[in-house]
Design brief:
The chain is of the alpha+beta class. It has two domains: about 100 residues, Ubiquitin-like (UB roll), CATH 3.10.20.30; about 130 residues, Fumarate Reductase Iron-sulfur Protein, Chain B, domain 2. About 35% of the residues lie in helices and about 15% in strands. Strand 3 and strand 4 form a beta hairpin. Helix 2 runs parallel beside helix 6. The radius of gyration is 20 Å and the shape is elongated. It binds FE3-S4 cluster. FE3-S4 cluster binds next to helix 8 and helix 9.
């Protein structure tokens, strides 16, 4: 049995515009979309470009648009797509460098804006910062983000406004605000509580639907709105 992989191809050095190219890939139970792409690369067309690394849904490299949804190619079983045609496109609204490889700079530029590292208020302890189980519970799930950019690619607001922080950066902001070891809550709220942050989100829910780690960016943004509202009311930001 074979499956047809229909892949968006684009080489800016050669092509006037992007086009689809079909490849026949032998199918066997357990085949993932990423394995299909590797089959094409190794047996049919060595010019195909795509990103991947861990093959275990941890590195976040292989997010792409597969049969109408943003997914990780490595954890997408071809059988789960219930189709003989597998259509693969790169993440949306990011410049295509080649085929399925996009320029993630706008995504990471927005991520950097939220200062994604711990900034403790207290002096560093001699050994380590400890956290109770309850404190750690407040960042559960939020720390699971693998920066795959599936949410960013799916967000129509990010597609029209590259300055919008986007769902991933906002999840990361909440992750540090909720972290008992961090001491910059108000400064972080000031970074996100504006028209390029939480107030730009139109609550479209695409990010919630596509996250491969089942994080809920829409809910995180609503929580940030609640926190920033209180901070604004009390004049802290
Ligand atoms: Fe975009 Fe998610 Fe808001 S898709 S508009 S960040 S709810």
């Amino acid at each position: 049995m074979e499956k047809t992989f229909r892949i968006l191809r684009y080489d800016p050095e050669k092509d006037q515009e992007a086009h689809f190219q079909d490849y026949k890939v032998p199918y066997e139970k357990g085949l993932t979309v990423l394995e299909g792409l590797y089959y094409i690369l190794e047996n049919l067309d060595a010019t195909l470009a795509f990103r991947s690394s861990c093959r275990a849904a941890i590195c976040g490299s292989c997010a792409m648009h597969i049969n109408g949804q943003y997914r990780l190619a490595c954890r997408t079983q071809v059988s789960a797509l219930n189709s003989d045609l597998i259509t693969v496109r790169p993440l949306s609204h990011l410049t295509i460098l080649k085929d399925l490889v996009v320029d993630l700079k706008p995504f990471f530029d927005n991520y950097k804006k939220i200062e994604p590292y711990l900034q403790p208020e207290k002096a560093e302890p001699a050994k380590e910062f400890t956290q109770s189980e309850k404190e750690r519970g407040k960042i559960d799930k939020l720390v699971d983000c693998i920066l795959c950019a599936a949410c960013y690619g799916s967000c129509p607001v990010a597609s029209t406004n590259p300055k919008y922080l986007g769902p991933q950066a906002l999840v990361a902001a909440l992750r540090f605000i909720n972290d008992s070891r961090d001491g910059k809550t108000q400064e972080r709220l000031a970074i996100v509580a504006n028209d390029e942050g939480i107030f730009r989100c139109h609550t479209i829910f695409n990010c919630q639907q596509v996250c491969p780690k089942d994080i809920d960016p829409t809910n995180a943004i609503l929580k940030l709105r609640g926190k920033s509202f209180m901070s604004k009311l009390t004049g802290k930001i």
